## 1
Amino acid sequence: MNTTLILRSAFWLLLLGFLAWDFQHSEPVDLRNEPPLIAAGSGQAAAGGHCSMPD
């Protein structure tokens, strides 16, 4: 067999396996509770800003 084909197949199998495992073990994302990424002009401050900002 071609080495490139084996490596390509192994990569995709590992990637799909990891994604399936992650999907099964992660908490579901609550899209309604997520802070806005860009709050331009909405009057609402964007959350999750720079990590050195004081609270």
Note: The CA atoms of residues 35 and 47 lie 6 Å apart.
## 2
Amino acid sequence: MHPIADKVLARDMRATARACRLVDDRVGDYAAILKDLFPHTGRAWVLGVTGNPGAGKSTLTDRLIGVFRGQGRRVAVVAVDPTSPFTGGAILGDRIRMQAHFGDPDVFIRSLATRGALGGLSRSVVDVVRVLDAWGADVVVVETVGVGQDELEITRMAHTTLVVAAPGMGDEVQAIKAGILECADVFAVNKADRDGADAAVRDLELMIALGGEVAAASGRARGHSAAAHHARAQRAPSAGGEPVEGPWEPVIARTVATRNEGVAALVDKLEGHRAWLFGTEAGAARREERLREAMHVQLRDALTDAAVAALGPALEAAVHAVARREVDPYTASERLVAAFRSAGAVTPGAAVAPGGGT
């Protein structure tokens, strides 16, 4: 057992912070730490919080921490902040809104930069979540940057995805755009004391209803029975009831995070999704699909790193050859892949020589 991993399992806060830093920076023997910790993961409920900037995600996350701590749960937060395209740095300011919990030994807050990654998450977020899972967190909240309706990466790593919207910010338009329905398990219309809150809720309800009709029509096109359509239209009830089989239909909560209003009801809806996810066959299928997607991402990253390391100068030669229009990027990529498959026996320029092979 790696000594840092051993301390993480002993819930040493400083060792856990160091492990998160090594994993985020991809330095040292971070992989050995992750391998030792992995058998002790899988117990935490991972809650993703996303939505447009300014919707109140950080304030709402702070309130969620309070509710979870009131239930006696150990909470970890991964707050992702945007990275400057000029300096590569990040302000990491989300934690400022969570200062009330810094003295709590059962709350661990970690800020990460996106490092230019698309989709609002850096590649290390999944691994940092696993470190915090092994640390003993009952709930890991991942707050994303909030890049708009195409921010779907969070759905591939979180058990439950909460999309935060606010009236008067154009969210009623965002609600009808592709992607947001697939992203959300629960919607929170935050700042619900503002004008336009009722309209925002109606727009979301309409979007959910239209999404259900599209899914039913798709099912009929594939020849499913009417009884099956009815079963799929059902959703799990909120916390306290038995989860119902069938796909999850997104639910909506109203909150005013600054006044801590509606947060308890929101947690009930989140718990309803968790009950469905871990208590139904449909939920189990969804968890397996997300694990499959996570493995694909892990494999893609590992293959990319291995290919870049193995190809070395040949990759640079390919860039120069494409820039000189000696070869198109598609052919160059095919030759590089072929070279990588042949055990990396590549000399500089051989893989991209005009008209040549590998």
Note: The domain at 3-279 is CATH 3.40.50.300 (Rossmann fold).
## 3
Amino acid sequence: MEIRRIQGGELPAAMDLCWRVFLEFEAPEYPPEGVEAFRAYLSDIEQVNHLTLFGAWEGQELLGVLAAEGSHIALFFVDPAFHRQGIGRLLFQAYLAEGGRGRITVHSSPYAVEVYRHLGFSPTAEEQLSPDGIRYTPMVWEQT
């Protein structure tokens, strides 16, 4: 397996993976406006181009994506066929190795709260619902 930055031409595959995993694990728990807001975010090329993206690759197959804007993780998805195989941890370690240090924040989806806990994140508040229908728990990771 190779963990590396995602290049421009690989962005569509990365956004597709995020969308597919979101639809399976998150969308059933979201109001319709939240699903649409997430889809719009993934489609906003200008926003996506501001992210630093890492991918987990097995040959030509993209298995996972972590995207951050500075010290905030914006997207973190692993293909369901590869859950619980350490891919998320490898992606997070790659992000840390390239400067993701100090205090890192995330707005965790309900499904991913335990994943983030295993990586060392702690909730900073209860679950919230953004005005556009996105459910999340604010969490933080701090380097010790």
Note: The mean pLDDT is 92.
